[in-house]
């Protein structure tokens, strides 16, 4: 692997991109370099393209639903559990542990409905430094363990990614993580950490969730049409179909969408439906260890079988205005967030001080 070739793999910048459907435009912060565009650079494709049998049980593709539970409102959340109950083998619920601190019973109910529960951190944030990530992840891990829930997968709050997150996940024995600021629209692979590949398998997902579409003014029918289109296109491109949504009280339309969409997926016989943890286990079971240690990709077939998505799916980078750029630069530099209590902040003292000053400044301006 030459330095020239690995740049898109080492450069893990994320940027705002515009996506569109039927004259409506919507935005998400995603990886600047979706790795699928550079697969040819890092591994040799076979001379002749042939249809590879890439997915379990000879199916054309897989389908998985990732649900992020950032906040919990008991009655609303129970309605979600009822919807998920019928499709539980295909769903992984990534829970922000703090949100369940006063709602532990809901996790019991989720478990009883046979829904896979994994970690979305304790505080809903991915920090820049290793110590803070380790603290946040272990606090979540032990919270779940006390409820007899053993987690092996993680989904990054707000899709954020950095190497320190991977190192903290490795330290705690996690197996996979899903962060669309690192990569999206791709087969799972291992991130390159500079000198070696991480032990954490990255499971890319489709980065547009229904809430973004509802916020952009799409109707329920349009959102269903959009995701039907996405499923069709990802099947053609051999890219795993992993869709995500939130249990978000602000958008009650999500429940109606999910009911209809999941019912349609149920009838799709060319898809192998499984949850994200099962899909990751299957990936490990087919992994070609000598190939993955060299290229970070699981199997040569994956880079040969995948096709390039069109721009409406990949998104187009948009330029942020200068003031916004400066603001996000400062926020990034001091790793600004206001969800962690000051006494629980870890890492660099200087940055901690800056963060606390900036928090006070923001409160004063409110
Ligand atoms: Zn989240």
User: Given the C-alpha coordinates, what overall shape results?
Assistant: globular
Q: What would you give as the CATH superfamily of the largest domain?
A: Glycoside hydrolase/deacetylase
Text of the CATH class of the largest domain? Alpha Beta
Helicity level, as a percent range? 40-55%
Number of domains: 2
Number of helices: 16
* CATH fold-level assignment of the largest domain: TIM Barrel
How would you characterize the overall build of this protein?
- By secondary structure, the protein is α/β, with parallel strands linked by helices.
- It folds into two domains: 3-43 and 54-317, TIM Barrel, CATH 3.20.20; 322-365, no CATH class.
- 43% of the residues lie in helices and 14% in strands.
- It contains 16 helices and eleven strands.
- The radius of gyration is 20 Å and the shape is globular.
- The chain starts with a helix and ends with a helix.
- The mean pLDDT is 88.
- Zinc ion (ZN) is lined by residues 68, 70, 120, 124, 157.
- Zinc ion binds at residues 68, 70, 120, 124, 157.
Describe, in short, the structure shown.
The chain is of the alpha/beta class and 366 residues long.
Question: Can you lay out the helices and strands and say which pair or pack?
Answer:
Blueprint: H1 3-10, E1 14-21, E2 24-31, H2 39-42, E3 61-69, H3 74-85, E4 91-95, H4 97-100, H5 104-112, E5 116-119, H6 130-146, E6 153-155, H7 163-171, E7 176-178, E8 201-202, H8 210-215, H9 220-237, E9 241-246, H10 253-266, E10 271-273, H11 276-286, H12 289-295, H13 300-305, H14 311-314, E11 316-317, H15 322-333, H16 349-365
Parallel strand pairs: 3-4, 3-9, 3-10, 4-5, 6-7, 7-8
Antiparallel strand pairs: 1-2, 1-11
Helix pairs in contact: 6-7, 9-10
Bound molecules: zinc ion.
């Amino acid at each position: 692997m030459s330095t020239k070739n690995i740049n898109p793999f080492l450069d893990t910048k994320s940027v705002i991109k515009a996506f569109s459907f039927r004259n409506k435009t919507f935005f998400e912060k995603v990886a600047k370099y979706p790795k699928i565009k550079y697969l040819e650079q890092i591994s040799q494709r076979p001379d002749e393209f042939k249809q590879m049998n890439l997915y379990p049980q000879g199916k054309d593709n897989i389908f998985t639903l990732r649900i992020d539970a950032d906040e919990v409102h008991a009655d609303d959340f129970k309605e979600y559990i009822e919807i998920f109950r019928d499709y539980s083998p295909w769903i992984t619920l990534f829970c922000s542990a703090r949100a369940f601190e006063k709602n532990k019973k809901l996790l019991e109910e989720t478990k009883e409905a046979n829904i896979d529960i994994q970690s979305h951190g304790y505080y809903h944030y991915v920090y820049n430094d290793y110590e803070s990530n380790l603290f946040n992840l272990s606090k979540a891990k032990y919270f779940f363990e006390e409820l007899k829930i053993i987690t092996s997968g993680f989904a990054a709050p707000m899709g954020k990614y950095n190497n320190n997150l991977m190192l903290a996940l490795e330290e705690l024995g996690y197996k996979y993580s899903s962060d669309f600021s690192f990569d999206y629209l791709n087969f799972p692979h291992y991130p390159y950490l500079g000198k070696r590949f991480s032990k954490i398998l990255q499971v890319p997902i489709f980065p547009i969730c229904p809430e973004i579409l509802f916020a952009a003014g799409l109707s329920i029918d349009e959102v269903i049409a959009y995701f039907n289109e996405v499923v069709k296109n990802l099947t053609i491109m051999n890219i795993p179909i992993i869709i995500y949504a939130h249990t978000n009280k602000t958008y009650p339309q999500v429940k109606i969408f999910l009911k209809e969409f999941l019912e349609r997926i149920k009838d799709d016989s060319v898809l192998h439906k499984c949850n994200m943890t099962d899909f990751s286990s299957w990936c490990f079971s087919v992994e070609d260890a000598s190939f993955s240690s060299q290229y970070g990709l699981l199997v040569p077939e994956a880079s040969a079988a995948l096709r390039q998505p069109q721009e409406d799916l990949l998104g187009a980078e948009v330029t942020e205005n200068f003031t916004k750029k400066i603001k996000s630069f400062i926020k990034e530099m001091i790793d600004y967030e206001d969800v962690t209590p000051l006494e629980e902040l870890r890492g660099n003292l200087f940055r901690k001080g800056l963060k606390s000053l900036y928090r006070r400044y923001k409160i004063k301006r409110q």
